[in-house]
Structure formats: structure tokens, C-alpha cells
Structure to design on (327 residues):
């Protein structure tokens, strides 16, 4: 048995949970008030047999991996028109920090 | 030293905490927003010497073990009278998922 | 790699986080609803290479160590004047409970 602790962005957490459930993983979400210093993160605890750790990691990676995303420019209403960028900008979203912890004993009562 | 991580139902958490305190365990409750996919769960972290792990597990089990419970029928006011069940129904409540984690170092500052 | 789990008082958590960041540690704060039975605690998870564990412990200790503090007396308005203590009283504040957990695998996606 292993306990996987994964810190992911809030925006990725719903699809991660859904994908985990589809593959019969059991996960607990912890309310996280600051995820490795970036706001808006969620911590998942996933208990799994050793043989399925790689599958869980694959699911976390495909749902949460850091990637570039184009963001539409925000209209400068009420802002400074001089700093207005009139084209989409690339930002990095997603990313996951994952710890696989050894487990001495596991019980389900 | 071991760190016990126990995910239990909200409805069992107050009596579990009280029983742990009565037996001199120190516990931290984490706000959990989804407990192994069932809503309304709470995660306890309990740090304890190895020799007392079994006592902690016994306390978790006796307060949280899954059991059948009869639930009084809800009156069908405003609902569909056709689906009204006029006798108590049995539902499963409780249950706990427990991980005992090894600890390399422990400090109290 | 190690995962440090530190339960500290809320009042120490901002300066702890700031000191950790200044020294390039990455930390996640978990919303804790009861910290080893005292209210108002925060749980930090800090992932770090083994070689930097002592530095992280030093930072936790210097920001959170239990210490005496003088608290100004509260004016007995609306209270019982007989129990009014007209001089500062010493109370213990701070303190940290810290677990260093072994990590089998670590990933950043
Ligand atoms: Ni699949
Ligand atoms: Ni007893
Ligand atoms: Ni320094």
C-alpha cells in the first residue's frame, strides 16, 4: 500500500477526480489554503496498492501537467490603456507536485 | 513514532476526538472536502509512539466502524407519494479508512 | 526527498511561510480545524531534499517555538471586577509539532 499526496491546481481538480473515479481509485480532497506558494491549489490523498501507483501517476500527469495556454486580453476599461496588450498572451497553467509515501499498515473499518 | 491518517465520517468525528483525548492521544483534524468520494468526511492526523498504535486503531474502530442503521421514513410532503416508504429503512453509516505512516523524525518545539 | 508535516499556531503561520519562502522552500498550508487539540492551528506540508531538512526544522523552530508572552490585562467592563488582574499576565504561545516523513517517489509534472 502507498499513500499518494498530490498538490494540483483547483482548475484541474474536478477532471482529475473524475478520471481517478473512472479508474477505481479512492481519493480524498483536502482544503488547501496555499499550494506550494501558488494560490488556488487542492491536495489529493490517494491510497492505492503498490501495483497501481504508476497508473495513478499517469492519471495525475495527464490531467494536471503544466502547459501553456493562450489567454484572451482583458479590455482596459478602468485600467491603464498604455499597458493594454491587444492580442492573446501565453500563460503557464496546471502543474502537480506529487509525493508517494510508504504505508506501514492499512485498514478499512 | 507513527503518523496515523484516518478518514472518517463527519458524524463520527466528535465522539472519535473525545475518545482519543480521553486516552491521551493528540489529534489534528483537517478540513476534507471529499472523503474517499463520499461527502461529509473528516481527516484526522494522530501522532503516536509505536507501542500505542493498536490502542489508537481500536479507538478509531469502535467509534467509526461501518454499521447498519434504521432511518425513519421521511414524510412525502411536497414529494412523490408513490415513492413513499412507510417503514424505517436500513442504511450503512460510518466506516473509516486508516493509513499508518512511518516517521523518520519527530519534534515538539 | 522528505515530506515535513508541521502543525503550528495560526499566529505564527504568516512569518513561518515568509521565512520558508526566503530560503527557497516550497510549502502547502492545509486548513486545520483543530491542531493537536488546541484551536487555531495550521498544518504545513513542506517537501524538501534530505540535505535541507535541518534548515527547514531550524526555520520552523525559530518562528514557532513555544515561548512566554506578557498579555495586557483586559478591562473588566461588563465583567466581574473582583476577578480583575490589574497587571500583565504571562501566557505560553506558539509551539510546533513536526513529523519528517520518508518519501518513496517524488514528481513534479
Ligand atoms: Ni483508462
Ligand atoms: Ni479506555
Ligand atoms: Ni537565513
Amino acid at each position: 500500500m502507498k499513500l499518494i499526496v498530490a498538490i494540483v491546481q483547483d482548475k484541474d481538480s474536478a477532471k482529475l477526480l473524475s478520471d481517478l473515479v473512472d479508474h477505481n481509485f479512492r481519493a480524498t480532497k483536502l482544503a488547501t489554503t496555499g499550494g506550494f506558494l501558488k494560490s488556488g491549489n487542492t491536495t489529493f490523498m490517494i491510497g492505492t496498492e503498490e501495483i497501481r501507483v504508476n497508473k495513478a501517476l499517469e492519471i495525475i500527469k495527464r490531467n494536471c501537467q503544466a502547459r501553456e495556454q493562450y489567454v484572451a486580453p482583458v479590455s482596459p476599461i478602468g485600467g491603464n490603456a498604455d499597458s493594454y496588450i491587444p492580442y492573446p498572451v501565453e500563460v503557464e497553467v496546471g502543474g502537480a507536485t506529487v509525493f508517494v509515501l510508504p504505508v506501514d499498515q492499512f485498514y478499512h473499518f
About this structure: Residues C 23 surround nickel (II) ion (ligand 3) (CB under 6 Å). The two ends of chain A are 16 Å apart (CA to CA). Chain A touches chain C at residues 2, 5, 7, 30-37, 41, 43, 53, 57, 60-61, 64-66, 94-102 (CB under 8 Å).
